[in-house]
Amino acid sequence: MNALLQVEGLRLGYGRADVVHGIDLTVPRGRIVSLIGSNGAGKTTILRGLSGLMKPRGGHIRWGQDGADLAGEAAHRIARRGIVQVPEGRQVFANMTVAENLRLGAYHAPGAEAARRQEAVVARFPRLGERLSQQAGYLSGGEQQMLAMGRALMAEPVLLLLDEPSMGLAPLIVEEIFAIIAALRTEGRTILLVEQNASAALAIADDAYVLETGRIRLKGPAAEVARNPEVTAAYLGL
Amino acid sequence: MLEQQLVNGVVLGATYALFALGFTLMFGVMGVINLTYGVYFAVGAFAALWSTQALGLPIAAALPLGALIAGVIAVAIDTLLLTRLRKAKAPELASLMVTLGATLFLYAGMAASLGTEIRRFPAAVFDGGAYDLGAVRIGTTQILIFGAAVALVVALMALVRGSRLGLAIRAVAENPDAAALMGINGGLMLRVVSFLSGAIGGAAGVLVGLNFNAIQPFMGEHMMLRGFAVIIVGGLGDLRGALAAGLLLGFAEVLTAAYVSSTFKDLTAFALLVATLWFRPLGLFGRAAAKRA
Ligand SMILES: Nc1ncnc2c1ncn2[C@@H]1O[C@H](COP(=O)(O)OP(=O)(O)O)[C@@H](O)[C@H]1O
Ligand SMILES: [Mg+2]
Which locations, inside or outside the cell, does it occupy (chain B) (predicted)? Predict the structure, then answer.
């Protein structure tokens, strides 16, 4: 198996309390892996650990062909390796324009290359194209989510980490967002998708992990996880 | 002699605007009020004085050298004092107190090693003469002060508002975590900002020192009071507001000194500050920041 990211025994916490208790997780190249779990399970904490915004308390984050250990590396370095996170709550630069937000996504690319990528992003999210000079803080929630994803795509990420892209959005917008995630999968992008919206996340994923209070409770092909009676009862509301 | 006072006001206002710009940049990006900023003002002035006296440099070379030295010291002090506090996400008050302590320490150190008597630039610095335009007399030094202040203001605004580096600096100021996710090295950007604002403060010190031809360690302390007035009047962290407020304060001081009394000059800044807080608490151009979603 061609693992792009291999997490072993990752431990994370705040203050004195551990919140993530040594999880293992594998993201194969070109796949969508979903990490589902209820509010407070530790999903965001895991993504922040992977992107370097939080320092792991233990374990390894092996990356790419050579299996370099990213645990403890600074966030900006991890981003430059191609691991790009779309954070929970979008975190767009509210005081800047849509165009400036996109430029920042491709910060390390030269201007001409950034312009080329911006065209591709605008083709994917036409609504951003109409609002390039608008201040990001005044966009609707759905538009901000698109901007956050577009900004991440500006970096041409090798691995995209999505933290609850559907949170707080109207059902139609959620459909739109998930259609774009599916399209990214078809184009061969690798995605680790964190969601509370378990049914949508399981429908789109190749593999799935179920997180409960900082531990992996279940894992396997997404279709199998979706059929698991415990999952149907607890997360799919069936 | 109103015309003459207006010319003097423009020149002084330009230096205040420059000073305010550096202070606002530091505050706006770092999010803490760094009281050591006044020290860089005095350091720049002393470094330029030293390079004209001891090295015999012309003022055109002493100005950038003074700015450079002040900038490097600003980076060193910020790294020493505030890096740990930032890492620990210490409350703003802790950072403010640390910079207050450092400021008192540094002023005392400068006073002890440099003395508190007022120093003056060598006469050769002012050799350029003056131009008479009708009733108005403009010294070449005044032209230099004004030209340098305007050039630095324009350069800094172009950097912050119009360059890729400036974009990264604004990103770090607004949301350090999101900026890191874009691959931007936040620590490096903070050092760049420390350097820029220290250098701007130092350059302002050189120019104000030239304008009044008076240099002493506590000149920065007096100036900080004006710095506060300017960032309050201009709006916290607002670069354009700082520019306008700096100019306004320069004019107000010159006119007060000319038509009221020079002893009232120092009251002007506070009158402006209090009036602004009273009538426009967000500053002259103050807008509430866009809501973060
Ligand atoms: N900044 C923080 N400080 C302390 N505890 C936190 C912080 N952020 C999250 N937690 C705790 O960590 C646990 C996991 O949170 P989180 O990773 O946000 O969960 P999820 O994303 O799955 O909803 C929760 O119990 C939460 O209360
Ligand atoms: Mg979360």
Answer: Cell membrane
Q: How do beta strands A159-163 and A190-195 pair?
A: parallel
pLDDT tens per residue across span B54-103: 999 999 999 999 999 999 999 999 999 988 888 888 888 898 999 999 99
Chain A CB contacts of B180 under 8 Å are: 52-53, 74-76, 79
- Tell which of A73, A90, A93 to mutate to test the B interface (max B CBs under 10 Å): A93
Phi, psi angles (nearest 5°) of residue A104: -65, -30
Give the count of beta carbons closer than 10 Å to the beta carbon of residue A20.
26
Q: Taking Cα atoms as reference points, which of A80, A76, A122, A123 lies closest to residue A99? A: A122
What's the CATH number of domain B2-279, 1.20.58, 1.10.3470, 3.10.20, 3.30.2310? 1.10.3470
Quickly count: other Cβ atoms within 10 Å of residue B137's Cβ. Answer: 15
The pTM of the full predicted model, rounded to 2 decimals, is 0.90
Chain B contact for A213 (CB, 8 A cutoff): no
Q: How many CB atoms lie within 10 A of CB B27?
A: 20
8 Å CB contact of B170 and A90:
no
- Chain A interface test: which of B163, B167, B174, B182 (most A C-beta within 10 Å): B182
Q: How far is A30 from chain B (nearest CA, A)?
A: 21
What are the residue boundaries of the structural domains of chain B, listed by start? 2-279
